[in-house]
Design goal:
single chain; mainly alpha; 5 helices; elongated
């Protein structure tokens, strides 16, 4: 058991994932206006961001630093994603369509809605035949 814990605390990848999970989960709990799907999407994005940041910015001989960098990346990723969605929803949607288009997804055209007929209350109803 001690070898398992020692291996966990020596692995930058595992500590980065743990830190990102804790940081993003903390932000997700405080976000009352987000849906569960948005919270899960932010958590997954935070995990990938923390792995990328830890791989590039932390030295190999300091694995516990990866935990702190993962927490920071997990906390900041949610904030960055929210600000990107608020500041430029069309641009964010375009980038998302571009990325998903490379994976084979294409947005369906919007269906035309039938015209809405509003009944006029001043006219009497037609007589039954």
């Amino acid at each position: 058991m001690n070898d398992l814990l020692a291996g966990f605390f020596a692995s930058q990848t595992m500590l980065a994932v743990l830190g990102a999970f804790v940081g993003s989960f903390r932000v997700a709990i405080k976000a009352k206006d987000k849906s569960m799907a948005a919270k899960c999407g932010d958590l997954i994005a935070a995990l990938f961001l923390s792995l990328a940041v830890v791989d590039d910015l932390t030295p190999k001989d300091m694995p516990r630093l990866a935990l702190m960098v993962g927490m920071l990346a997990g906390t900041m990723c949610d904030v960055l994603l929210d600000s990107a969605r608020v500041l430029s929803p069309d641009t964010a949607g375009g980038i998302l369509d571009l990325v998903l288009g490379k994976l084979g997804y294409h947005r369906q055209p919007a269906a035309e809605k039938p015209p809405v007929v509003v009944a006029d209350d001043d006219e009497p109803p037609p007589p039954p035949e």
